[in-house]
UniProtKB/TrEMBL annotation:
Pathway connected to this protein: Membrane lipid metabolism; glycerophospholipid metabolism
Reactions it catalyzes: sn-glycerol 3-phosphate + NAD(+) = dihydroxyacetone phosphate + NADH + H(+); sn-glycerol 3-phosphate + NADP(+) = dihydroxyacetone phosphate + NADPH + H(+)
Organism: Umboniibacter marinipuniceus
Biological process according to GO: carbohydrate metabolic process; glycerol-3-phosphate biosynthetic process; glycerol-3-phosphate catabolic process; glycerophospholipid biosynthetic process
EC number(s) recorded for this UniProt protein: 1.1.1.94
Protein name (database record): Glycerol-3-phosphate dehydrogenase [NAD(P)+]
SUPFAM superfamilies tied to this protein: 6-phosphogluconate dehydrogenase C-terminal domain-like, NAD(P)-binding Rossmann-fold domains
Residues binding NADPH: S15, F16, R36, Y53, K110, A142, R257, E283
Family: Belongs to the NAD-dependent glycerol-3-phosphate dehydrogenase family.
Length: 341
């Protein structure tokens, strides 16, 4: 698929799937948005509005919304995965035997499967080993994309075809798609930043100063790079849209669901209450435990991850965690530095 794209399927009709599918349809490319719930798909198709996720956002009239999986993926040259990471195995297994080896797949979920620390592109390849796969990641609050705020994203893939097809399908005068060649870094960055967005939400609810916010964001970046480079990703990826770009937006905007989970925790709510209150996907909650375990296994120093883990799972007081973070023995050498930053 190049400049003559004929059909795209977007799987998952939540916040992100809805805005991405609308971008594709807005480019005059045939696009089907698959939603699992038959009644809701019919309602959205008829009303041209996904009232549960985006009340008031009128969808392009050319967008086809369906709960029929086979109809959605039929003849699609590019399939955009927009379900949460917890649903990837289920949805990818539905694609097995149904699509050709040439069908391009673009992954947009920002999570990591705990079993085997599997990135979403790895889950896709387990089910569809022959299909070219790419990863979309960047500072992409769905609501702002829907509002046509100027936005940029990164599509990283070993396949030029996937990058080109994604650019053709998604790029618009308000949505710019950059190309990247480190899908592992882009994917890790997108998943890891959700943990720090939760921490930022907690600090947001405590009305701490801008020095604190800045310290948090930059030290988060250092932690993310440390783990990612240990896992083989390219640290410089973290200097771009998928890294510092996405970290910044999710650590500063209440439009981020992960940030809002943090705000609720900071107001004294339990994790269960916080998650229930948001009612949408907040990947950082599951990613925290997965990353904590991985860091322990690899011996990677991640004090902010440790702090959030102690707060949520060991019920340590936040004041105690802050004190221990601020007074921890300081390194006098540069062993914790990551080459490139
Ligand atoms: N929203 C955003 O701003 C951005 C989100 N992302 C990432 O995109 C991914 C999806 O998030 P988002 O759209 O925001 O999440 P939402 O919670 O808004 O929506 C999730 C969607 O996935 C559907 N879904 C859940 N489980 C399944 C399943 N087993 N089979 C089929 N459909 C399923 C839900 O269906 P139902 O409505 O029936 O429950 C819903 O339509 C996440 O990994 C997120 O990190 C990335 C960038 C930006
Ligand atoms: O990833 C996002 C923006 O880039 C969306 O963040 P949340 O999943 O926290 O809403």
């Amino acid at each position: 698929m190049t400049n003559t794209t004929t059909k795209v399927a977007v799987l998952g009709g939540g916040s992100f799937g809805t805005v991405l599918a609308n971008l594709v349809a807005g480019n005059g490319i045939s696009c089907a948005l698959w939603m699992r719930n038959e009644q809701r798909a019919a309602e959205v198709m008829n009303s041209r509005e996904n009232a549960e996720y985006f009340p008031g956002f009128i969808l392009d009239k050319r967008l086809n919304i369906t709960s029929n999986f086979d109809e959605a993926i039929e003849d699609a040259e590019l399939i955009i995965m927009a379900v949460p990471s917890s649903a990837y195995d289920t949805v990818c297994s539905q694609l097995e035997q149904r699509i050709s080896r040439n069908t391009l797949i673009l992954s947009t979920a920002k999570g990591i499967r705990a079993d085997g620390f599997r990135l979403m592109s790895e889950v896709i390849q387990e089910h569809l080993p022959h299909n070219p796969v790419g990863v979309l990641s960047g500072p992409n609050l769905a609501k702002e994309i829907a509002d046509n705020q100027y936005t940029a994203t990164l599509v990283a893939s070993a396949s030029t075809e996937v990058v080109e097809a994604s650019q053709t399908a998604l790029a618009s005068p308000t949505f710019r798609v950059y190309a990247g060649d480190d899908p592992q870094g882009a994917e890790l960055a997108g998943a890891l930043k959700n943990i720090y967005a939760i921490i930022a939400g907690i600090t947001g609810s405590m009305q701490l100063g801008q020095n604190t916010v800045s310290m948090l964001i930059t030290r988060s970046l250092a932690e993310m790079c440390r783990l990612a480079s240990e896992l083989g990703a390219e640290p410089m990826t973290f200097m771009g849209l998928a890294g510092v770009g996405d970290l910044f937006v999710t650590c500063t905007s209440p439009l981020s669901r992960n940030y809002r989970v943090g705000q609720a925790l900071g107001q004294g709510k339990t994790l269960e209450q916080a998650v229930a209150e948001i009612g949408q996907t907040a990947e950082g909650v599951a990613t925290l435990k997965t990353v904590y375990d991985k860091a322990q296994e690899l011996g990677v120093r991640m004090p902010l991850v440790d702090g959030l883990y102690r707060l949520i799972y060991e019920h340590v007081e936040i004041s105690e965690i802050i004190t221990s973070l601020m007074t921890a023995q300081q390194a006098t050498d540069v062993e914790h530095k990551v080459k490139g930053i």
